[in-house]
Design goal:
By secondary structure, the chain is α+β, with helices and mostly antiparallel strands. Among the domains are: 118 residues, Jelly Rolls, CATH 2.60.120.10; 55 residues. Helix content is 40%, strand content 22%. It is built from ten helices and nine strands. α3 packs antiparallel against α4 and α8 packs antiparallel against α9. The mean pLDDT is 87. This is HTH araC/xylS-type domain-containing protein. It holds the Pfam family HTH_18. GO terms for molecular function: DNA-binding transcription factor activity; sequence-specific DNA binding.
Length: 326
């Protein structure tokens, strides 16, 4: 069994107030410089719960009452979705408003006015380098800017909500699977890729998309060897391509042609095989369960892991575990 990478720490903030000025100060600290206004003098309370792991941040905001924020552009890439209440956002370019089910990207280039009434809202902050890396892998360049708040379609709105809800559940349910470095890397990449597909951004209007290029057999062998040697570490397509000294898109095409899968698909096969070996070698002390071994190798969803395992080995994973703890 390979030596495990250390678990990532999870930071947790639970902030509650009935003072609008304290709410304004917290918004200023966490998101953006702002001026808070109360449209009415009724009761007010706010609870903000924040979970942070490895640069990925998820906030859950619950507001009773109403508020209006006149805010500067956001400092980070923040995307939100509404579970309840009413929300609106307006910049000099556009206005977006809605109720439960709404999804939105907070603008980084424009100041905005936000209003909310009895909100139940989640916000997700993505590492900017992860988004740039996903853009480079998909489109051949890492210059990306989100240009509108609303998703491009209702289908992509639902796709984003599903991905964000999954990440939120993984973050707030202890012990968080996102503490596992392999799981964390995959989930962050998934969120970045879905955000690029769901929200209007400059990759959608690029005039020219370069061809993927060609990978010599030696480059493909370097990529395979790198994956085999580092499967127990957080890997990205860009990192694998850099180790093979080729471009990410060219490497994708080469893997599809010669291995009938993608580099990340090949990595998943290798990790599944390592999980299989760990299950067979598990000691009788009960130190490991199927779920723990699956998480160690980057499989956050136990049902998905079981399905992949059965597909590959013809039996469920618990059948190969020497001792499954009660």
């Amino acid at each position: 069994m390979p030596a495990r990478s250390g678990l990532l720490p999870v930071e947790h903030l639970d902030f509650t107030t009935s003072d609008p000025e304290a709410a304004q100060a917290k918004f200023d600290e966490l998101y953006l410089r702002n001026r808070l206004h109360r449209p009415d003098t009724g009761s007010f309370s706010m609870r903000l719960r924040r979970y942070v792991v490895g640069g990925l941040c998820m906030d859950q905001l619950r507001l009773r009452g109403s508020l209006s924020l006149d805010g500067d552009p956001f400092r980070d890439l923040v995307f939100g979705f509404l579970r309840g209440g009413r929300w609106s956002g307006a910049t000099r370019r556009e206005e977006l408003r809605g109720r439960a089910g709404l999804a939105f990207a907070h603008p980084m280039q424009d100041a905005a006015v936000y209003t909310g009434l009895d909100l139940d809202c989640c916000a997700l902050t993505l590492p900017a380098d992860a988004v740039r890396r996903a853009a480079a892998e998909q489109f051949g360049h890492d210059r990306v800017r989100f240009v509108a708040m609303a998703p491009i379609s209702s289908d992509m709105r639902d796709c984003w909500r599903a991905a964000a809800e999954f990440a939120h559940q993984q973050l707030r349910t202890p012990p968080s699977t996102l503490r596992e470095p392999l799981v964390h890397t995959q989930v962050v990449h998934l969120l970045a890729a879905v955000a690029l597909a769901a929200f209007p951004n400059t990759t959608m209007t690029a005039d020219y998309l370069r061809g993927p290029g060609w990978v010599a057999p030696a480059g493909l062998r370097r990529a395979v060897a790198f994956i085999d040697a580092h499967a127990d570490q957080p890997l990205t397509l860009s990192g694998i391509a850099a180790a093979a000294r080729v471009g990410p898109r060219a490497l994708q095409y080469a893997f599809r042609r010669h291995h009938n899968t993608t580099p990340m698909g090949y990595l998943r096969r290798v990790r599944l095989d390592r999980a299989h070996q760990d299950l067979l070698a598990a000691v009788r002390t009960g130190a490991d369960s199927v779920a723990e071994i699956a998480r160690r190798w980057g499989f956050a969803n136990p049902a998905r892991f079981a399905a992949l395992y059965r597909e590959s080995y013809g039996r469920p994973p618990h059948g190969d575990l020497v001792h499954e703890p009660l």
